[in-house]
Amino acid sequence: MTSTSKGIFRPFFIIFIILGCFMAFILIYIKPTNSWISGPIESASSVLKMKNFFSSKTDNLNETTVLIWVWPFGQTFDLTSCQTMFNIPGCHLTIDRSLYNRSHAVLIHHRDISWDLANLPQQARPPFQKWIWMNLESPTHTPQKSGIEHLFNLTLTYRRDSDIQVPYGFMMVGTSSFTFEVPSKENLVCWVVSNWNPEHARVKYYNELSKYIEIHTYGQAFGDYVNDKNLIPTISTCKFYLSFENSIHKDYITEKLYNALLAGSVP
């Protein structure tokens, strides 16, 4: 994910993190259904023990605390958003590590894990607590870190087979009619790229395609940087947009597709 895409992705990120934490609330007592990360999986009897533990140790079983260990991508948001934005009761988000022993789930972003794992929680894990492995990058851009294979209970990624899916975007069938005005199109094809590498397949494809049609290109590699504010307006001037991903993997569809749709261009 590039710096530009991080800015555009921020509103989606906040919403999906909150909803992801809400899903964690639901999944606290159930067994994960995938094997992305091998972790301790509780039996039905241990689930009952956890519920009994909560009943005896907490005043309100419906109050769930999710500890965000490190802000993913450095993106912060209002920790009261569960209630204020989505009216989700009983969900408490926190970054206060002193609440570790009382947290039902700990959200840990893969990229923020140090290579020696020294910045992971060092205290003993309470028996009721779930660790959530969060990663929004593709496998190509996900560095392997030895020692985490058996640490996590739940996965939070863009993949549909995750315990908690956090897609970069989604499309819904509208239930009411509306009028959409297609923005004025000045150019046929455009491409905004920040991660330029001549060896990348998408760059080689662009070089070949540009021999036959004019492609309006933007980015530092072309001396025409586009900031977050101007990204969607820039894309909207083109009929078609090259929505090239940095790698091809299962379910890996990022803001590059959704930005084009938001701009009224064909990806």
TrEMBL record:
<keyword id="KW-0328">Glycosyltransferase</keyword>
<keyword id="KW-0735">Signal-anchor</keyword>
<dbReference type="InterPro" id="IPR031481">
    <property type="entry name" value="Glyco_tran_10_N"/>
</dbReference>
<feature type="domain" description="Fucosyltransferase N-terminal">
    <location>
        <begin position="62"/>
        <end position="169"/>
    </location>
</feature>
<dbReference type="GO" id="GO:0032580">
    <property type="term" value="C:Golgi cisterna membrane"/>
</dbReference>
<keyword id="KW-1133">Transmembrane helix</keyword>
<comment type="similarity">
    <text>Belongs to the glycosyltransferase 10 family.</text>
</comment>
<protein>
    <recommendedName>
        <fullName>Fucosyltransferase</fullName>
        <ecNumber>2.4.1.-</ecNumber>
    </recommendedName>
</protein>
<keyword id="KW-0472">Membrane</keyword>
<keyword id="KW-0808">Transferase</keyword>
<dbReference type="InterPro" id="IPR038577">
    <property type="entry name" value="GT10-like_C_sf"/>
</dbReference>
<dbReference type="Pfam" id="PF00852">
    <property type="entry name" value="Glyco_transf_10"/>
</dbReference>
<feature type="transmembrane region" description="Helical">
    <location>
        <begin position="12"/>
        <end position="30"/>
    </location>
</feature>
<comment type="pathway">
    <text>Glycolipid biosynthesis.</text>
</comment>
<feature type="domain" description="Fucosyltransferase C-terminal">
    <location>
        <begin position="183"/>
        <end position="267"/>
    </location>
</feature>
<keyword id="KW-0333">Golgi apparatus</keyword>
<keyword id="KW-0443">Lipid metabolism</keyword>
<comment type="subunit">
    <text>Homodimer.</text>
</comment>
<dbReference type="GO" id="GO:0017083">
    <property type="term" value="F:4-galactosyl-N-acetylglucosaminide 3-alpha-L-fucosyltransferase activity"/>
</dbReference>
<dbReference type="InterPro" id="IPR055270">
    <property type="entry name" value="Glyco_tran_10_C"/>
</dbReference>
<keyword id="KW-0325">Glycoprotein</keyword>
<keyword id="KW-0812">Transmembrane</keyword>
<keyword id="KW-1015">Disulfide bond</keyword>
<dbReference type="Pfam" id="PF17039">
    <property type="entry name" value="Glyco_tran_10_N"/>
</dbReference>
<dbReference type="InterPro" id="IPR001503">
    <property type="entry name" value="Glyco_trans_10"/>
</dbReference>
<comment type="pathway">
    <text>Protein modification; protein glycosylation.</text>
</comment>
<dbReference type="GO" id="GO:0006629">
    <property type="term" value="P:lipid metabolic process"/>
</dbReference>
